[in-house]
Design goal:
Radius of gyration: 20 Å
Structural class: mainly alpha
Distance between the termini: 44 Å
Largest sheet: 3 strands, antiparallel
Shape: globular
Order of helices and strands: HEEHHHHHEEEHEEHEEHHHHHH
Number of helices: 14
Number of strands: 9
Length: about 450
């Protein structure tokens, strides 16, 4: 169980954040100077160098979005150039990609961050550039929403790259694509010019995820522990019936892959922030604003509590809470995570994602007067961040292209590099882990310097 540091503040982390951005800048330049886009998208490191891995193209937005975050904090325009130029030159195919569920990852991280910086005055206003970003965001949300499996006339989900039968936990964080597209006044147009609400699809996908990918301790099955999550939910597309949990990247359907848990822990609080800004009349058809937010909050608190309980004391989780080798580690939850152990890898990328969710959930609860519970989650987020932003997780080696070490991609498929003398993957980084660490660092930098919270939908002019 995480040992929460209640005395820690965001300002206390300022020296660590300065080091993170100093190292981050070096690594962005190193990769930019070496990487040939013709090789595909950098995904994770092998022996300290980023490599590509054909599965789906879901990490390129993290590469250039990370540079945009670097610019946001340092105001070094070399990073803006990397982020903006490559967004224009290389990201269009991601906007029109009909084969993935990852639009929020790729396109809100690039076009969305650039539009946000322009709307806040960090970038000079340019009407044509603004329109370019807005068009990309309108399109990406609609295309994401079109990847739809209907269960009933009022329910369904955005299906994963596995096909119409498959819902992934990951997609909850990509709902930000639908959110910004809706915010910009866009709709998906269907057959016979039928307008399809992107907000409705966002809420329906979130509800389906809550019902089938998240456990609430209600006796659903023998492994129903409150806050546990399933990576994949399988449906019969002929009649819309739910069939079973499954896992692509976790150990089993009945264990919890911690990065899948982290996506949900990050996604629901972030969407609560968005829902707070909507007028009551927009949410009235879905039961009203209070009811919708209450449902999102129930999910967020359940998965947050599970994360706190089933993660080692320093806040860095092992890659799956049911991984079989954990039995050989003894009381592993009662001591800091051990990335160099010989039985099961940790996943620092899950920590980077989860920490952000804990901070956002804590902030929301404090805003609505639930100070004690909000403080618990917020301080847990700071506790995780503090550990993540120091060695052995922070990569201080200038020859290593990764920023956050001990990330895991696909343990069951054996894709992750195992160094000589080790039995499990360790010492490597991932593009999503580095991006979310940078995003976490931006959040904390803003908190430490008295700036408003980082919110993806702050794109109004």
């Amino acid at each position: 169980m995480i040992q929460i540091n209640y005395s820690l503040t965001a300002a206390d982390l300022k020296p660590a954040l300065d080091q993170v951005f100093a190292l981050s800048g070096q690594k962005i330049h190193h990769l930019q100077n070496r990487w040939n886009p013709a090789r595909g998208t950098p995904v994770f490191t092998v022996k300290g160098e980023y490599t590509s891995r054909g599965w789906t193209e879901w990490t390129q937005g993290f590469q250039f979005g990370g540079a945009i975050y670097q610019f946001e904090v340092t105001r070094d325009e070399a990073f803006l150039d990397i982020g903006r130029r490559n967004t224009v030159e290389l990201m269009a195919s991601h906007v029109t990609h009909i084969g993935v569920h990852d639009h929020g990852f790729n396109n809100v991280s690039t076009y969305g961050n650039l539009l946000r910086l322009m709307s806040s005055g960090v970038l000079p206003f340019n009407p044509w550039e603004k329109n370019f970003y807005e068009l990309a965001l309108k399109a990406t949300g609609a295309i994401q929403a079109a990847r739809w499996t209907e269960l009933t006339p009022d329910s369904g989900y955005i299906y994963s790259f596995n096909g119409p039968h498959s819902l992934f936990a990951d997609t909850i964080r990509s709902l930000r694509a639908l959110a910004v597209s809706h915010q910009l006044g866009h709709k998906l147009m269907g057959e016979m010019d039928r307008p399809i609400s992107l907000l409705a699809r966002l809420l329906q996908h979130a509800e389906t995820t809550a019902r089938f990918a998240v456990y609430f301790g209600d006796g659903r099955d023998s492994y129903d522990i409150r806050g546990r999550t399933a990576h994949e939910s399988i449906f019969n597309v002929n009649d819309g019936a739910y069939r079973c949990p499954n896992s692509q990247q976790g150990y089993s359907p009945f264990s919890t892959w911690t990065r899948g848990l982290a996506w949900i822990l990050c996604g629901y609080p972030e969407e609560i922030e968005f829902l707070e800004t909507l007028p009551e009349e927009e949410l009235a058809p879905f039961g009203g604003k209070a009811q919708v937010i209450s449902r999102f909050l129930r999910v967020a608190e359940a998965v947050a509590d599970f994360y706190l309980q089933y993660t080692p004391v320093d806040g860095i989780p092992y890659w799956d809470t049911g991984a079989p080798g954990l039995a050989y580690l003894g009381n592993y939850l009662d001591r800091p995570a051990e990335p160099y152990n010989q039985h099961e890898p940790v996943d620092s990328s899950a920590a980077a994602i989860a920490a952000q969710g804990l901070l956002r959930l804590g902030n929301y609860l404090k805003r609505v007067g639930q100070t004690e519970q909000g403080t618990r989650y917020y301080q847990a987020g700071l506790t995780v961040a503090k550990r993540l932003f120091e060695e052995p997780y922070l990569s201080t080696d200038p020859t290593h292209e990764g920023l956050i070490l001990h990330s895991v991609y696909h343990r069951p498929n054996g894709w992750d590099y195992i160094p000589p003398g080790q039995q499990v993957p360790c010492g490597e980084a991932s593009m999503w882990g580095d991006y979310h660490a940078r995003e976490l660092a931006v959040m904390l930098h803003r908190a430490a310097t008295g700036q408003p919270d980082l919110r993806f939908f702050d794109i109004r002019f």
